[in-house]
Amino acid sequence: MAALDCSGPVPGYYNSPFPGEDGGPRRQLAPRSPGLGLQPGEHLRVTSRPAFMANMVVLRNPGEVFLQGNTAPSGNSTSWIERIDPLTLAPLARSSSLPGGPFWAGGILVHANGYLYVTYGRYCHKLDAECRLLASHELPQPQPYNSLLAISNGALVMKNFVRDGSNKSYFSLLSPDDLAPICAEVEIPEGSIARISRDITADGEFVYVVGDHTIFRYRYESGVLGRDRDWQHTYRTLGDDVQSYGWDPVIAGGSAWFMDNGENTFQVSFKGFGVASGPLHVVRVSVTDAADAEMFAPFDLPRGTIVNPPLFDPSRSILVAYDSGNARIA
Fold it and tell me: Which residues, 6 or more positions from 271, have their beta carbon under 8 angstroms from its beta carbon?
């Protein structure tokens, strides 16, 4: 059974309650926190500020909150990081404009070494806790890179985003010291839209990637990321007009959980703008045996679509899924 990222320090990541996108590399979305602990008579007060195109928040030391965002979508968009006050949300430090290139919301993590790393557009950046840029690396593919993981030994892993099926996707592995490539690009058999996930079990350390038709995994060992050819599952079986590509996998409770129908034509709202005619499906694939898999439609409504992964609570065996195309939760 997959461990919980919120149970303690995550190998490769800073020892904080929320050091990376979705809380950790398994994307379980659970912070390492006892909760708000509100008592009778106490109230929750909300503070807000406008933050155009803000994307993700990560935590470092107590009181150190970092907000990552970007400029408006374009072929030459840029990213930025702010260290913000945890109570007022006012910026305490801000990076320079970080080169990006073709837009897609990127990723950020606080590394075990204490530095911040951002993958955005075609670039990976390294910054210190005062948001000062220390190094940048231009990535090889002409698409944006939409995800960022740290391996247990600290190596950085990212993947280019191929939305139209015109090409395969590739992993890039970079050194956290100077962002130099550790090895040649690693080919993925399909283009991939989804963000990548990582799990460590008694069988080894694995990176999971949902391609536009199939979920694959790669074993990381001794500096090499190699495809596990004994583990893959083709989830897209209903025809491209009925079913579109899957998004980010959540590793929890001994399975990889993700949803399909990720293609949509967002127009202010997602409601009614799913491209595929069929309902949204949840896919479950066992991490020990990819033949142990199932797909089910919790809503059975046409043109379902998603923009975020599901939640799975292994302690109570509860899955929570949201259909953005039909505004339904189950």
Answer: 324, 325, 326, 327
Contact 309, 249 (CB under 8 A): yes
Q: What is the three-state SS of the chain?
A: CCCCHHHCCCCCECCCCCCEHHHCCCCCCCCCCCCCCCCCCCCCCCCCCCCCCEEEEEECCCCCEEEEEECCCCCCEEEEEEEECCCCCCEEEECCCEEEECCCCCEEEEECCCCEEEEECCEEEEECCCCCEEEEEECCCCCCECCCEECCCCCEEEEECCCCCCCCCEEEEECCCCCCECCCCEECCCCCCCCCEEEEECCEEEEEEECCCEEEEEEEECCEEEEEEEEEEECCCCCCCCCCCCCCCEEECCEEEEECCCCECCECECCCCECCCCCCCEEEEECCCCCCEEEECCCCCCCCCCCCCCEEECCCCEEECEECCCCEEC
**pLDDT by residue, tens only, the chain of 330 residues:** 568 999 999 999 999 999 999 999 999 998 888 888 899 999 999 999 999 999 999 999 999 999 999 999 998 999 999 999 999 999 999 999 999 999 898 899 999 999 999 999 999 999 999 999 999 999 999 999 998 999 999 999 999 999 888 999 999 999 999 999 999 999 999 999 999 999 999 999 999 999 999 999 999 998 899 999 999 999 999 999 999 999 999 999 999 999 999 999 988 888 889 999 999 999 999 999 999 999 999 998 999 999 889 999 999 999 999 999 999 999
pTM: 0.96
